[in-house]
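Can't paste images in this forum, so I'm doing it all in text. The chain is below; anyone willing to post the predicted structure tokens underneath?
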Amino acid sequence: MPILSILWMALTPVENAWPHLMATTLPRYAVNTLVMCLSVGGLSAAIGMGSAWMLTMYRFWGSRWLQWLLLTPLAIPAYVGAYALVDFLEYAGPVQSALREVFGWQSSREYWFPEIRSRWAAIVVLTAALNPYVFLLARTALREQSGDAYEVARALGAGPFARFWRVGLPLARPACAAGVAIVMMETVSDFGVVDFFAVQTLTTGIFSIWLESHNAGGAAQIALVILGFVFLLAALEKVSRSRSRFYRMSRQSRPVTARRLAGPYAAIALFFCAVPFVVGFVLPVGVLLFHAINKPEYWFSNGLLSALWHTLAVGGAAAVITVLGALFLVYGVRMSGRMLPRKLMPLTTIGYAAPGAVLGVGILIPMAAADNTLADGVLALTGWDPGLLMTGTAFAVVYAYCVRFFAIAQGATDAAFERISPSLPMAARSLGRSAKGALLEVYIPLIRGSVGTALLLVFVDSVKELPATLLLRPFNYGTLATRVYEQASLEQLEQAAPPAIMVIAVGLAAVAFMAKAGK
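Text version of the structure:
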């Protein structure tokens, strides 16, 4: 429904802004988005695949810890990393202050330093936040490969780089391509980072056209371009490996045996793998903790507890509704035994490909119209004005979270059902259990770990979601994400530190859960 509403608004605008957009800002938005996608995707592929290769194929000091530490940047929302990087590297930050003190410089005119609020800084921040997607998928793919292929390559004289380039990379390419596609789609949908660094992309264009020019049709037209970008990325990822086949040649293949590194080679490997962890996790957490400790009174500032409560309420409601809906859908499709529902079920995951800003446009306009019509009807019939029941409450925010993250719950639930032998529910049915009884007494106890994982992941992603929350929240209804954005936009990082640390703590819980599940 949100995507259909975007199509309708884009094709039938009240004020057609398309010619003006094409002649002025749209080319710049598209070029910046494309450059960001290619740069972040390429750097994430190099960092994620390279670190996954070294931690799978070699053992050195710290490698066991780094396998899990490299996942921790997933707990840091990208916009939080942007605020921390600017605070660390800006003119009044510790780096430039130390340089001026050491060399005796009095002003910025006496030395050169890279411009922080720029496109390259946005690329660095997004790469640091998103490369774990590639690392996680590539590491899993490399672990599942047979060690025999590498032994044969070594026997034929292939060196370390040749084994990576000609054996490891081709076999792990599907996983790496899937990770890069996720990274690029997240880059297209990002708003907090590019807005803070003043990089004009398609996502920031939605906010500019809608909120500043008050042109909903123009915002929908830009949203349609973003959807085209996202679906093109997904299609390219599928086509790039459509004719490739990757099989294990033996059922009893030996796993990859990691070789021990020592001396300068171990130091180089440790440095390469530690840099993403330091930039993506240690730096932002260190900056935020410094401000939070120096200004402890901001932990008790007005609005923080209400933002925490709103975050827990909308995130928890979205997680419960989404997972229950996924359970109902997956189990219902399996019980129906029909081909059409099974073919249509992947369409329910299309919301994950739609960025939060796009969903905000597609939800708010038609829902606001329905809300006003409903309120007017109730007022005419009863004389009582109920107000805006959907857009005037957190309903629209929860709805957006459910649409956006249903794919996570549906994928985890479907995979959990696949692992259960059909004989178990068949035995329960033969003993007189109904379909409901088989679900409650057989399936639920066996898949509760996967259900818990889905609940946690949907909740964490809801907590970090910024664009949809900014567009759909009622007036004076803030969450931790919006509070961080508002305070950091006002250059008040000290007040943004407590809610940012709370968001990071929720994300770390999910990372710890994934690390435990991956052992």
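The longest strand covers residues 58-59. The chain has a mean pLDDT of 83.
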